[in-house]
Amino acid sequence: MVDQLEMFESNSFFNKNQELKLCTKCNKNLPLNCFSSAGRMRATDGSFKLLNKCKSCCYLDLSVREALKKIVATPNKEYKCPICLRQAKELLFIDDSNTHQINSQWCLDHDHETGNFRGWLCNKCNSALGWLDDDINKLRRALNYLENYANSS
Known about the structure:
32% of the residues lie in helices and 20% in strands. The protein contains 4 helices and 8 strands; from the N terminus they run H-E-E-E-E-H-E-E-E-E-H-H. The strands form 4 sheets. A two-stranded antiparallel ribbon has the order 1-2. A two-stranded antiparallel ribbon has the order 3-4. It has a two-stranded antiparallel sheet with strand order 5-6.
């Protein structure tokens, strides 16, 4: 596979002196235009924050998820999230005007290193694992933290 930086160096629009950003997936320093902005993540000055993964890595991740969705059956209506044990119908909240379904679909959970399917999770539990970088040691520390807090009450 051609190194992305080498590709850019061969193009006239690439300036070696421009600001670079490290992609957390491929670990390459790439020009800022290789990263998409996270539309909902604005900085305090009103600018958009750039994603931590380059566009190429984001596309590869999306391709893996879409391929898995074609070969893995979606959960039935009785399915429960293996972490929080809630069914889809329990993932609703009601406000004064309407019922809003926050987690309308199950998230396909997969190993980001191997691409292997792990299971279906609700959005909340899938996000929790993502915020902990799917790192077992971080999850253990979070568990220890909660256990220590529960024991100190």
